[in-house]
Write a structure and sequence with these properties.
The complex is a heterodimer of chains A (243) and B (694).
Chain A (H helix, E strand, L loop, with lengths): L29 E5 L7 E2 L2 E4 L4 E6 L10 E6 L4 E3 L4 E5 L2 E11 L7 H4 L5 E10 L7 E9 L3 H31 L7 H9 L6 H36 L5
Parallel strand pairs in A: 3-10
Antiparallel strand pairs in A: 1-4, 2-3, 4-8, 5-9, 6-8, 7-8, 9-10
Helix pairs in contact in A: 2-3, 2-4
Chain B lengths: L4 H18 L7 H4 L8 H4 L6 H12 L16 E7 L5 H9 L8 E3 L10 H14 L9 H20 L2 H7 L4 H7 L4 H16 L7 H7 L6 H13 L5 H18 L5 H7 L12 H18 L4 E5 L2 H5 L7 H17 L3 E8 H10 L2 H7 L3 E3 L3 E3 L1 E3 L5 H15 L17 H9 L5 H17 L15 H22 L5 H15 L3 E2 L2 E11 L8 E9 L12 E8 L5 H10 L11 E6 L14 H11 L3 E6 L2 H20 L6 H11 L1 H6 L14
Parallel strand pairs in B: 1-4, 1-7, 2-3, 3-4, 11-12, 12-13
Antiparallel strand pairs in B: 5-6, 8-9, 9-10, 10-11
Helix pairs in contact in B: 6-15, 7-10, 7-12, 7-13, 8-10, 12-13, 13-14, 13-15, 17-19, 23-27, 24-27, 25-26
The chains are: A alpha+beta (243), B alpha/beta (694).
């Protein structure tokens, strides 16, 4: 029978090492910024990101003037993709922080653009941060939320609502004319003019625009609220009420 | 020297004026002669030139235990013993005091154990004295060392806890209102998050000291938030189930509560805690003690505090009543050797007389001597295990004279015209210079007497031969009052941390009071501190053997009784645990204890002590006392003070007098002062106990 070499487990962390509660294991500060280094907005559901853009996860040393950490994406949501290698950002000619670039991309699918204003994507970006003087890295959990910009989203929702309302006003009338065999059915321009001249025509587009905006907003807020509650529950579990 | 008759005349005039001035001032050489009492005016009396070399060497040794970086137990220097030896009066105690008042102002924990009981496991003994030193007011700094230690570690824990907060955690940590929460769904959290960065930066700097309330107010953080933050951080990062994890967790939480909420009893709760994780078997007592000691030494190392145990009163430990006890000496040295092997980060300094040391060395096992002589290695000097205090050379004596007299002549304008060595004459100084073997104290005595003669024109009284028998009464009384005051201060702090000292005191008191006959019993033997059970804080009793005496009315004399005496001091949830720990005395079969006396200070005036117990504690009492012979007796605060005062009193007497106080004098003083404690230690009378033996 063939023998095999014993695979030994790695040596456990020294039981008499200083308590992890007292160790400088974390970077002095860490955050998500744009490519240019501008901090991204922070909401209670996480850092607010937008599709199609590249961001940096930036971390400083654990102590002032100490070694910069090595950063590695440990786990990430499906809408995040890694972009290139870790960068070292210098200030005044000295390495100041480490940056891990990543991009936010929309999951491919039909009607993606149409769905965009209704959708909010949430997830956790987990980055392993390892300092050269520490045997083991530490996981930094960074909640992120991806949504359309509010302004653009609002305009899109209104436009979609208007379009849908217009179609809602136009299509039944065209169907009716077609079934009646009237000449208007054959000429869409004439048909449009006759529909537009109806005194209640604008009611439909306006109503659907308002309803669509409200719907989009409600879906967004609901999703963000749920995510925010999840994160709060996570915080509460880590920080029990002081006794 | 004056070079002209005018100058000589002026110098004589200045001398006469200076002597005239000094006549109205106290003798500056009086104080160091006073035998070994802690002096509040140390800084005024200390002359740095004296014993400079050995003192600096010892400080250098202490500083090797001050760590610039600490990552774990492996960074702690090995525990080592250094012996400071010198003849009687060589300045050992003064040197120890000068360590406490070190000129560079660097901090250190100077533990000065006053008692030694060979029956107590040595690590437990070290832990107990370290805790008491940390919790007692430092006579030099004027506050508890634990307060500084706790504040600094709490600040570090807070800083790390803030950094550990994730981006959204920082928003929830501020407990936002519903409206704010709705707004935060969009964005706007950057400002709140930046507030924590500023808070962490302030915690990293020293500008705010320990004003955590001011700091939380400045950053608009609710005050109750800080302890919660530390607690969460500690629970998350020190989540292990080992004894060390449990001890650290509770220690750091106690420090945070002590610092942030001002909860003085948080430390008591740490000491009295049951470290057993839920559903697991209890930790072994020795393991808990070892980890408690390690956690405290580690906490000190993290703030660059060397832990120094200074055994100043070695004569009191090993030669009580001036009789050398070889057994105790051997046990003490063996324990020191075991501490060298089994602990880290402690410096054990023994201050001892040469004659006693020779005696100790003769009676110590070789394995212990080998460990004790390892020494602390110093740069370019090799290991140092002994420091000898030699008699001061004449140059040092001259500086001593100059400094002491200069302080009295601070406002005297003609000071510069006084001759060197003023007010002493050349002949006296030459004679003193020739006596090289004269110890510091004897030189001081000669300086004092000569000063009295020169300045006050008073001759020292001739040596009576033989000396009259001393009047012990005032000395006993004065030392007793001082010791009671010190005991009172100790009791005001944390009574539970004094539990072992209370037992040591009770044992010492009974030993000194014996042989005594009371209510048909003769006190035969006392074991002051006997560890029982697994609880390191509560598990200690005093074991007393009583023999029946005289004619018994009923004919048959009762059998001899071995009584365990426990002191119930815990309050609140710790009380049932405390009581149960006392009952553990019956589990230790080899002790063969027949009955237990529990002394309780809860309701000293109550008739029925059992009825006064809280429900949980009474349940424990009912459960065990049904099967075992036990009784609860009240003790007053005065009783506790007496117990605590007795060892210090005996120690003080030994220091204050060159000859031992006769035992009958001590015995009658104790019997007269503490009759209630003698009564309290008697075996319970079966008819009057709350429960009967099975």
């Amino acid at each position: 029978m063939q023998t095999e070499e014993l695979v030994r487990q790695t040596r456990p962390v020294d039981g008499l090492a200083v308590s992890r509660a007292l160790q400088d294991l974390l970077p002095l500060s860490w955050q998500i910024t744009t490519e240019r280094g501008k901090p991204v907005p922070l909401s209670s559901a996480g850092y607010v990101l937008h599709f199609g853009r590249t961001y940096h996860f930036r971390a400083k040393a654990a102590v002032e003037g100490g070694p910069l950490p090595d950063l590695r994406l440990a786990s990430w949501p499906p809408f995040v993709t890694r972009r290139g290698d870790t960068l070292t950002v210098s200030r005044h000619g000295r390495p100041a922080l480490r940056a891990l670039p990543f991009a936010v991309t929309r999951p491919s699918g039909r009607l993606g653009v149409l769905k965009a204003p209704y959708e909010v994507f949430c997830g956790d970006l987990e980055v392993t941060c390892t300092f050269s003087d520490q045997p083991k890295g530490i996981e930094l959990t960074c909640p992120v939320v991806v949504r359309m910009r509010w302004g653009l989203g609002f305009v899109t929702l209104v436009l979609l609502g208007l379009l849908f309302g217009t179609l809602l006003a136009f299509v039944p009338r065209a169907w009716h004319e077609y079934m009646a065999g009237s000449g208007l059915a054959a000429d869409p321009v004439e048909l449009w003019i006759s529909v537009r001249d109806h005194p209640l025509f604008w009611l439909w587009p306006l109503a659907t625009a308002a309803a669509n905006t409200a719907l989009g907003l409600t879906l967004n807020v609901g999703r963000l609220w749920r995510r925010s509650r999840e994160l709060q529950a996570r915080y509460d579990s880590r920080h029990p009420r002081a006794t | 020297m004056p070079s002209s008759p005018e100058a000589a005349n002026g110098a004589d005039q200045a001398r006469a004026q200076a002597i005239d001035l000094l006549r109205g001032r106290p003798n500056p050489f009086e104080n160091l002669v006073r035998p070994q009492r802690p002096d509040e005016r140390f800084a005024d009396l200390h002359v740095p030139a004296l014993l400079r070399e050995p003192r600096e060497l010892l400080l250098q040794i202490i500083d090797t235990y001050r760590l610039p970086r600490y990552t774990g137990a492996c960074d702690l220097p090995d525990t080592r013993v250094v012996i400071v030896q010198g003849a009687r009066g060589a300045g050992k105690t003064h040197m120890l005091d000068s360590l406490a008042h070190r000129p560079d102002g660097k901090a250190q924990v100077l533990v000065r154990p006053g008692l030694y009981d060979a029956k107590v496991p040595f690590e437990e003994y070290l832990l107990n004295h370290l805790v008491n030193t940390l919790l007692a007011e430092d006579p030099v700094q004027g506050h508890k060392p634990f307060a500084d230690l706790a504040a600094q570690l709490t600040r570090r824990l807070l800083r790390l806890a803030v950094r550990d907060l994730g981006p959204t955690d920082r928003l929830f940590a501020c407990s936002p209102s519903r409206r704010q929460r709705l707004r935060l769904l969009w964005s706007g959290g950057e400002a709140l998050s930046a507030r924590f960065n500023r808070f962490a930066a302030d915690l990293a700097g020293n500008s705010w000291g320990t004003d955590f309330d001011g700091l939380s107010e400045r950053h608009d953080l609710p005050p109750e938030f800080l302890p919660k933050l530390v607690e969460g951080h500690v629970k998350r990062h020190e989540a292990g189930t080992t004894a060390l994890s449990a001890v650290r967790r509770l220690l750091y939480e106690a420090m945070a509560k002590f610092t942030l909420r001002g909860e003085e009893d948080a430390v008591n709760r740490f000491l009295e805690a049951d470290y057993t994780p839920e559903g697991a078997r209890p930790f072994f007592r020795a393991d808990v003690v070892r980890q408690q000691l390690h956690a405290l030494v580690e906490a000190c190392a993290l703030v660059q505090l060397p832990v120094v145990f200074a055994f100043d009163n070695l004569e009191g430990f090993l030669a009580p009543q001036n009789r050398f006890d070889a057994e105790v000496a051997r046990a003490f040295m063996d324990n020191l050797a075991q501490a060298v092997d089994g602990t880290r980060g402690l410096l054990l300094v023994l201050f001892a007389e040469q004659t006693l040391l020779r005696e100790v060395d003769r009676n110590t096992h070789q394995f212990a001597l080998d460990r004790i002589r390892q020494g602390v290695p110093l740069h370019a000097r090799g290991p140092i295990d002994r420091i000898e205090l030699k008699p001061p050379v004449f140059d040092e004596v001259r500086q001593l004279i100059a400094e002491r007299v200069d302080r009295l002549l601070k406002d005297f304008a003609e000071k510069d015209r006084l001759p060197a060595g003023f007010p002493y004459g050349k002949a006296f100084l030459d004679d003193l210079a020739g006596r090289r073997d004269l110890e510091l104290r004897n030189k001081m005595l000669r300086l004092r007497d000569e000063y009295s003669q020169v300045i006050y024109d008073r001759k020292p009284p001739p040596d009576p031969n033989p000396p009259p028998p001393p009047d012990w009464g005032p000395l006993l009384e004065r030392t007793w009052t001082d010791s009671l005051a010190a005991a009172d201060r100790r009791l005001q702090g944390s009574p539970v941390s004094q539990l072992k000292d209370l037992h040591a005191g009770l044992g010492k008191l009974l030993q000194q009071a014996g042989p005594v006959e009371l209510e048909g019993w003769r006190l035969a033997e006392v074991q002051p501190q006997v560890p029982v059970g697994d609880h390191p804080a509560y598990g200690v009793v005093t074991v007393i053997d009583w023999q029946p005496v005289g004619d018994q009315a009923g004919g048959e004399p009762p059998p001899a009784a071995r009584v365990g005496v426990g002191i119930l001091l815990a309050g609140g949830p710790g009380m049932p645990r405390d009581l149960r720990a006392k009952f553990d005395v019956f589990q230790k079969k080899e002790l063969r204890v027949n009955c237990l006396v529990v002394l309780s200070s809860r309701s000293p005036d109550a008739e029925d002590q059992v009825a006064e117990l809280p429900a949980g504690t009474r349940q424990v009492w009912d459960e065990v006392s049904r099967r075992r012979r036990a009784v609860i007796r009240p003790v007053t605060q005065d009783d506790l003070r007496w117990m605590l005062a007795v060892p210090e009193w005996l120690d003080g007497l030994q220091r204050a007098s060159d000859q031992p106080v006769p035992e009958p004098t001590l015995r009658s003083f104790i019997r007269q002062r503490c009759p209630s404690l003698l009564q309290a230690a008697l075996p319970p009378v079966p008819e009057r106990t709350a429960a009967h033996a099975d």
